[in-house]
Design a protein that fits this description.
It is a single-pass membrane protein. It comes from Sphingomonas kyeonggiensis. Pfam families: Band_7. InterPro entries: Band_7 (IPR001107), Band_7/SPFH_dom_sf (IPR036013). The protein has 301 residues and is α+β, with helices and mostly antiparallel strands. It has 3 domains: 98 residues, no CATH class; 108 residues, Tetrahydropterin Synthase, Chain A (2-Layer Sandwich), CATH 3.30.479.30; 53 residues, no CATH class. It is built from 8 helices and 10 strands. The strands form 3 sheets. Strands 7, 8, 9 and 10 form a 4-stranded antiparallel sheet that branches. Strands 1-5-2 form a 3-stranded antiparallel sheet. A hairpin with a 2-residue loop joins strand 3 and strand 4. Helix 2 packs antiparallel against helix 3 and helix 7 crosses helix 8. The radius of gyration is 40 Å and the shape is rod-shaped. It starts with a helix and ends in a 16-residue tail after the last helix.
């Protein structure tokens, strides 16, 4: 039985090569000489035979049209992909006025840096929480042959792959970790951005495109869980603050009892020690100012 996948032809990967072209300034001189020749022939129309004048004019017109049809202009960071009847002949990256055979097709491709901000998309993170993400990507064409011949529309291809890469990275990590024990999208922005760039470079290599810089421009919980997550963060913050407060209060109580015993200020039994610890903890951990009660009797009244 024949495997259908093995029978399918493999994608032929294109590769950029240098095209054979000429400087346009030399051919511009040829065009000027053709104009001069036609002018000289017309000025000598009474002195030479008519067939010589007509032949000279026809040759000058043909040369002029031939030369003018081959001109094209390349600006900095711009390339021209040259084809002959659909066959790739090469790429010209030399800036300025250029010239190639008139029957060659020249398609200009920008190799400048392009900046794009993707649409906000909803992604489920590693824990299944819906989050909203958007990325900013700086990309440019490095291989013009791959960009034109290996994908249908390389600009649309970039947009689709950016969305796919953002979804992949977003589902690979949790949005946040309240225990700070693992890599998260919010807490490790630079590391995740570097991984996103690597993912995009790998995806866009088939189109001859590289990524110079990328990062997240929007990262937040989706609206349906944003309120619940905010309350959770507030609760976590309150618990952390209380924990710090209690740890500090316990240390202060321990220090107070140790100094009272060391300086022989007062001798307390276990019951009175427990009462003093309770009172000190209430004073130190209370959210309101305490109201002191003055005891005018003995310690045990």
């Amino acid at each position: 039985m024949t495997d259908v996948r093995s029978a399918a032809p493999a994608l032929r990967q294109s590769s950029e090569k240098t095209a054979t072209t000429a400087s346009g300034y030399g051919m511009l001189l040829v065009a000027l000489l053709a104009i001069v020749a036609a002018g000289v022939a017309l000025s000598q129309i009474d002195r030479i035979a008519d067939w010589i004048v007509i032949t000279t004019l026809l040759v000058a017109i043909v040369v002029e049209l031939f030369v003018l049809c081959g001109f094209y202009l390349l600006q900095p960071n711009q390339a021209a992909v040259i084809t002959l009847f659909g066959d790739y002949q090469g790429t010209d990256r030399t800036t300025g006025l250029r010239w190639a055979m008139p029957w060659l097709i020249k398609k200009k491709v920008s190799v400048r840096a392009n900046n794009i901000i993707s649409e906000r998309i909803k992604v489920n993170d590693l824990r299944g929480n819906p989050i909203e993400m958007a990325a900013q990507v700086v990309w440019r064409v490095t291989d013009t042959a791959q960009a034109l011949f290996d994908v249908d529309d390389y600009k649309a291809f970039v947009n689709v792959q950016i969305e796919a890469a953002v979804r992949t990275i977003g589902s690979r990590y949790p949005y946040d970790d309240f225990e700070h024990q693992e890599v998260t999208l919010r807490g490790n922005h630079d590391q995740v951005g570097t991984e996103l760039r690597g993912e995009l470079i790998e995806r866009l290599r088939v189109a001859g495109i590289t990524v110079d810089e990328c990062g997240f421009t929007h990262l937040a919980y989706a609206q349906e869980i944003a309120g619940a997550m905010l309350r959770r963060q507030q609760a976590q913050a309150v618990v952390a603050a209380r924990q710090t407060l209690v740890e500090g209060a316990v240390g202060m109580v321990e220090m107070a009892l140790a100094q009272l015993s060391a300086k022989d200020v007062v001798h307390l039994d276990d019951e009175r020690r427990a009462a003093m610890v309770s009172n000190l903890m209430v004073v130190l951990c209370g959210e309101r100012d305490t109201q002191p009660v003055v005891n005018t009797g003995s310690l045990y009244q």
